[in-house]
Design a protein that fits this description.
Bound molecules: adenosine-5'-triphosphate, magnesium ion
Distance between the termini of chain A: 27 Å
Strand content of chain A: 15-25%
Number of helices of chain B: 10
Structural class of chain A: alpha+beta
Distance between the termini of chain B: 46 Å
Oligomer: heterodimer
Shape of chain B: globular
Shape of chain A: elongated
Radius of gyration of chain B: 18 Å
Radius of gyration of chain A: 33 Å
Number of domains of chain B: 1
Strand order of the largest sheet of chain B: 6-7-8-3-9-10
Helix content of chain A: 40-55%
Structural class of chain B: alpha/beta
Number of strands of chain B: 10
CATH topology of chain B: Rossmann fold
Strand order of the largest sheet of chain A: 2-3-8-5-7-6
């Protein structure tokens, strides 16, 4: 009896017990569908997180005041910052920090913006010309302020799309005037939207030269303090070197000898990625656990029905043996049947999982990623479950003595 | 897989001429808990090629047990059994399966056809296990069905056939591998007298092609079809009469009836 015969006889047996077969594979079907949807959801949210983080800019390191060990997460403006414009200047030294290609200090505070009788409250960001490339942003209309503007404390402003819409509607904002704390600023450019993947609304911001911000708008208790410093590493492979250089320089300028007592924190993009992925990994593991449980339950279902099937077919087994079927042929026949049951559960499960995924993507803001490796793995897993849980019933069938089997009525 | 030496070659080695079945001191005991049932107690039996032997005995005397051993469905507790000259009393299950497939055709009282298959597929079954190719299989199965007069019913399932027709399908299935021996255990037990006669005629026909038939029954008229009647009682052979002797008596069936009467 060759493989084709075994396969055909297993198929015939499954088809002739159609409704029972469907019930048998229900557990595996649900398990596989759960795997497809949950892994797809996990990958979807991970992709979203990655997109968000990479939208922050390329090869980016962010220096923020306060230490991680002190637990200070909120670093509101006006609180005395340990990070200053002098730190930024020190980091910009290409001899001490050869792997840092650009340094962009940022001061930031919310303020009321007024124009054409409209007013709107938005974060005012004081920065330098390197901001655009560090944050990977583009200008849509007009231009960004220049180094000249920074040196001369010019009263010029670039605005985000949300601010533009709020203050000027659909009109071209370039050439208009916005008043911040009684100082009129000339609008010289509008930034292109940061895209929907951003977490905070980066389109609801305005940008002015850092010198102007420090002297005229945001004069805090310490006029030289900054809220963060963006550093760009030369390339992606020099991120670690840039991190070391920045860390050493800042410890040195702050006169700190014990690195654990640092009053600043340097975050890299990869660190953010790791945090985000570890969160979504936990979720994926949890969902995978649920899927695994339902697959095991499904496997036990297959075993159960296979045992029933063996018991029902004791006479058939006896007859086949009398006619010359060897124990291993009988075993193969039932194993094939279990394998086919598992596989069909897997295939139906994939179909259900894909349907649910498409519905979820369609009806909610979640993206479900359907990947070929997951589907291939699903087929392999469901087949293996069928095989593994078929071993016991199949060997029971193979071990039946032919006369016992023939005698049973 | 064991390679079976053709009977003819074995014959010269063992010196047993024409012997298809040879049972030497075969015993079979069933032990269930405290109880021990000696179903067969030292059976000695030799059946030659081309013989039609009836084994006749009342219920419970060990007929089926003997048939299971002759059919290699079970192994004896002690004794030696030579099938076509080869000792098969101590073989493994897988080897026994191959011996059954090659040498023996079974006909059972309950027909034992697979209900979810057509008559043709049922007849093909032993050929599948004999590793015959699909095309050849179908041809031989159709031929066997034609021999029992059921060629036009090949696509019918067992529940679409009468009891007599089902038993004829079973006979076709037994014939299809061209076995050395046909073993029939109460083949007419579930049939009316007309169908019974049919079935017994098919078995006689098979014998006329030079094959061996062992028929197990407790009915004297059925045993009468054979040319040798072996009677059993309590696991022992109590008489073994050749047809010549049966025929020389004034009334053949009277002898069989007399044997049966003595046994009861
Ligand atoms: N598996 C078994 N376990 C225990 N005892 C058994 C078993 N099979 C048969 N026997 C016993 O062996 C004896 C012979 O049984 P067997 O079936 O061979 O009789 P039989 O001649 O075929 O009877 P019948 O005409 O009723 O079919 C009986 O006493 C029976 O109870
Ligand atoms: Mg019996």
């Amino acid at each position: 009896m060759n493989f084709r015969e075994t396969l055909r006889s297993a198929l015939e047996s499954i088809v002739s017990h159609r409704s029972r077969s469907v019930l048998t594979v229900l557990g595996i079907l649900i398990g596989i569908a759960a795997v497809i949807v949950t892994v797809g959801l996990g990958q979807g949210s991970q992709q979203k997180v990655n997109a968000t983080i990479s939208s922050l800019g390329s090869n980016l390191l962010i220096v923020t005041p306060g230490s991680t060990s002190s637990g200070g997460v909120s670093r509101g403006l006006g609180s005395s910052s340990t990070l200053t414009i002098q730190d930024a200047n020190a980091l910009a030294n290409h001899i001490d920090a050869p792997d840092i290609s650009s340094v962009v200090p940022i001061v930031q505070a919310g303020s009321v913006l007024q124009a054409n009788g409209n007013s709107w409250t938005a974060p005012v960001v004081g920065t330098t010309t390197g901001y655009l490339s560090a944050r990977d942003r583009q200008i849509a209309v007009g231009s960004f302020f220049t180094q000249q503007d920074v040196t001369t404390d010019a009263d010029v402003i670039d605005i985000g799309t949300v601010v533009a819409a709020q203050l000027f509607g659909t009109a071209n904002p370039v050439g208009q005037t916005i008043t911040i704390q009684n100082t009129p600023f000339q609008v010289i450019g509008e930034l292109a939207s940061a895209g929907s993947s951003a977490t905070a609304n980066e389109d609801d911001q305005v940008f002015i030269p850092i010198s102007t911000a420090m002297t005229q708008v945001l004069g805090g208790s310490n006029p030289s303090s900054v809220s963060q410093i963006l550093l760009q590493a030369k390339n992606s492979s020099s991120i670690n070197a840039a991190y070391q250089e920045a860390n050493n320089l800042l410890l040195q300028t702050h006169g700190i000898t014990n690195p654990t007592a640092a009053d600043f924190t340097i975050t890299t993009e990869t660190q953010l990625l790791t945090t985000a992925t570890s969160v979504s990994k936990t979720l994926t593991f949890l969902l995978a656990g649920i899927a695994a449980v339902s697959l095991i339950v499904g496997g036990i279902g297959v075993m159960n029905i296979m045992l029933v099937s063996v018991a029902e077919r004791v006479k058939e087994i006896g007859l086949r043996k009398a006619l010359g079927a060897t124990p291993s042929l009988i075993r193969d026949q039932f194993l094939t049947e279990a394998l086919l049951l598992g596989l069909s559960g897997g295939v139906l499960g994939i179909a259900l999982g894909v349907t649910i995924s498409l519905l979820v993507t369609h009806l909610s803001s979640n993206t479900v990623i359907l990947s070929a490796p997951v589907m291939i793995a699903s087929v392999v897993i469901s087949g293996s479950i069928g095989l593994i849980f078929g071993v016991y019933p199949a060997s029971r069938a193979a071990a039946l003595a032919p006369i016992e089997a023939l005698r049973s009525e | 897989m064991a390679v079976l030496v053709p009977a003819a070659e074995q014959v010269s080695k063992t010196g047993i001429m024409n012997s298809v079945l040879r049972l030497e001191q075969i015993s079979k005991s069933y032990v269930t808990g405290e109880n021990r049932v000696d179903a067969l107690r030292g059976i000695n039996l030799e059946v030659k090629e081309g013989e039609f032997v009836s084994i006749m005995a009342p219920s419970g005397s060990g007929k089926s047990t003997l048939m299971h051993i002759i059919g290699c469905l079970d192994t004896p507790t002690s004794g030696r059994y030579l099938l076509a000259g080869r000792d098969v009393s101590r073989l493994e299950e897988a080897q026994l399966a191959e011996v059954r497939n090659r040498y023996i055709g079974f006909v059972f009282q309950q027909f034992h056809l697979l209900t979810n298959m057509t008559a043709l597929k049922n007849v093909e079954l032993p050929l599948i296990y004999g590793k015959v190719q699909q095309h050849e299989r179908t041809r031989r199965a159709m031929e066997a069905l034609a021999r029992v007069g059921l060629a036009n019913r090949w696509s019918h399932r067992p529940n679409q056939l009468s009891g007599g027709q089902q038993q004829r399908v079973a006979i076709a299935r037994a014939l299809v591998t061209d076995p050395k021996v046909i073993l029939a255990d109460e083949p007419t037990g579930n049939l009316d007298s007309a169908s019974s006669k049919d079935v017994l005629d098919w078995l006689s026909d098979f014998q006329k092609t030079g094959r061996t038939v062992v028929l197990i029954t407790h009915e004297p008229d059925v045993a009468e079809y054979a040319d040798r009647i072996v009677s059993m009682r309590d696991g022992r052979i109590v008489s073994d009469i050749k047809k010549e002797h049966v025929k020389s008596a004034t009334n053949g069936s009277a002898v069989a009836a007399k044997i049966a009467g003595e046994l009861d």
